[in-house]
Amino acid sequence: MLAIEWICATVIVAAISYLLHEFLWMKKRKRLPPGPKPLPILGNLHLLGKNPHQDLFHLAKKHGPIMYMQWGFVPAIIISSPELAEKFLKTHDLNFASRPYHEGSWYVAHEQRNLTFAKYGPYWRNMRKLCTLELLSNFKINQFQSMRKRELGFLIESLKRASSDQVVVDLSGEVSSLSANMSCLMIFGKKYMDKDFDDRGFKDVIQELLHIAAIPNLGDFFPFLGVLDLQGLTRRYKALGKVFDDFLERIIDEHVHQSSNIPKQNRDFVDTMMSILQSGEADFEFDRRHIKSVLIDVLIASMDTSATAVEWVFTELLRHPHYMKKLQEEIDEKVGMNSTVEESNLDGLEYLDMVIKETFRLHPVAPLLLPHESIDDCIIDGYHIPKKSRILINTMAIGRDPMVWSEPERFFPERFVEDNVDIKGKDFRLIPFGSGRRMCPGMHLGLTVVRLVVAQLVHCFDWKLPNDMRPNDLDTNEVFGLVTSRANHLMAVPMYRLKE
Ligand code: HEM
């Protein structure tokens, strides 16, 4: 059959199934949450544009904080208030602790054997425990403290040169490279540069994965269309899966040959995982496939999240120079003009924490968290939540809700002086790392990197916008993806300010 015939046949089958589904559903219709009226087959997919978190924010203003949508054949529940977020992520957490099918993880992470998209069950529980204890513990985070200091030192030196020449730097690019280097050193024990992956180079391959992971996948919403691969995504995921697999196999082999009895405090993540594999101490199915899947997870999760958070903090500080100054004054007082910031200084920097909280409120790195999936039918606030619904918690909508925050659109770190809101998953007004069973296990590491990098860059340099741009003219356009970053790179001129 020709491709066009295949498409027609699939659309007809899809339409019949949809009508059948609607008919059966009518018979036992239950009270669903309110939401926009769906079109036949397409459902509400036509309402989602390039920045779905913003579209859902606007739709919630009309339909309310719990909203039902039909995305193709998939029911979606969108949550936009702290009270409801608490019901989904705390009161009924267990029922919403699974993840939907994710084609990228299927092909790149050995059939969703990664932590991020593994279905809820014994494998996910065991792997999460292992990662939390062995890779993301305080002991492990502290082990890499000197590496972080050294890498950040390299960036400061290069910015000092830019400062003496008064050149504009690509702050987004610089922080992203720093974060990539820190992640590679922690995970693989060395930095990976261009050509280390395949012809395209390390960064390009990661960027391609992030890019296609952000493209809405028709196969996710219309399972019949998945096999046709009309968007070419399956083909690209398979090719990327092979590139990652070859790369990780090579790295693991190198580690196996080099490492015999590396002391625990010197082990990178590959060493740690391989020593667990070799010792046989994992009491669940655990082989190279699982190790490779989790290595990809921590690589992707650590590289872009922290760098994007730093980028947003700087965006707001450059738009509000008086807050930048106030932050400098706090650090000058605690650290002094003769020294750079150490991780041991961070706990005393309260204003820094307020600036970071305020940035997460306005610019959460993952505005819809990661998608959760309901394990069983459930009733919440009198509404029926069907089994296998996709649950999205819109933290961006919660962060800008005037019922929750006064003057929500205003960047105002001082709002946290009186109200010391927790960002570690206990206060549902601000949950940039999620909450409950699926909450981010890398939060401590992520926060350490963000606080350190922001503090150091603000302490060592005054910053000004290029070409006499006024602070108000700096845009805050975003591009939605696995992480939601600035649409345009942040450019600024550093001026060194410490005593030599
Ligand atoms: C500023 C930095 C970071 C932010 C804002 C962030 C945010 C998040 C969010 C919102 C989720 C989804 C929670 C949910 O679905 O309910 C998540 C999950 C996750 N994060 Fe992070 N993250 C950061 C850094 C890191 C780092 C450094 C790592 C590891 C090295 C990491 C590893 C993970 C993993 C493995 C998951 C999936 C957990 C699971 O499904 O069980 N993250 N993160």
TrEMBL record:
It comes from the Eukaryota. This is Uncharacterized protein. It comes from Catharanthus roseus.
